[in-house]
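Hi all, long-time lurker, first post. I run a small reading group and we've been trying to get comfortable going from sequence to structure in the token notation. Rather than ask abstract questions, I figured I'd post a concrete chain and ask someone more experienced to write out its structure so we can walk through it together at our next meeting. Sequence below, copied exactly:
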Amino acid sequence: MPVPLGLYKIFTEVAKCKSFSKASKNLYITQPAVSQAIMQLEKELEVRLFTRNSSGVRLTREGEMLYEYAYSAIKLLEMGEKKILETQNLLSGELQIGVGDTISRYYLLPYLERFHKEYPSIKLKIINRTTTKLCDKIKSGAIDLAICNLPINDHSIEVKHCMKVHDIFVGGEVYKQYAKGTLSIEALSKLPLILLDRNSISRRYIEQFMLNKGIQIQSDIELGAHDLLLEFAKIGLGVSCVIKEFSKEYLEKGELYELKLEEAIPARYIGACYLKSAPLSPAALAFIEGLQLTEKKKE
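-- Answer (accepted) --
Happy to help. Here is the structure in token form:
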């Protein structure tokens, strides 16, 4: 039968104090309770741990052997308890965040900077992957959370909406004439289209919207990065589908023009994603709450 940890704590205190009475005062229990605990421990281990002398008690040879291990074990446990407390108070720990290139550059960087300044003792580990691969890492426990393009249809993953975004089509100077009015979806589909690759959440969302309107779009150019969509459209290679909030600089400078549709693509979100079945660490909770609070203030 396993020996209760409390007996070892009393044993190490008596060994340090070399006195039952001093140990009882330090532990805030009665001296008879201390004596009873030592007797019980000796009975469990079938060995004598202390001998009495004129000044108090001293360890037997077996007691000295046990003390070496018991003291180290209790110190390790105390350190573990301290670390847990520090983690709960955000004084230590690690936060593993997954994010894609575009969201990292245009959305997440200011939050990372602020969180690091507020909680400098939390070590940040950033992993860069596509949304699909990040979901796999969430489910495997490789990361605490991910900031992803939504929607994500996975019942094992919890999603917290953070930032609302709008998908739009843009063109360079060659397509400026189309920006004067509105375009039907059918007319848009006949233009050279520059889209993200088929595995991206953004591409799937746009394709599904178009299919619901009876139009199946085909890409003339497929790219793997939002910045390339902007640059390819800028030099007139076609019309790119981009996130409006991440394309402001190009639009404001007049390097790109928004081609407005007769029926706008419904807004979607960027969100914090994590595993439903696992509790979030205090650091992860603080990070997500910071994201959501900032977005609410913007609204």
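A couple of things your group might point at:
The chain has a mean pLDDT of 92.
The CA atoms of residues 19 and 172 lie 86 Å apart.
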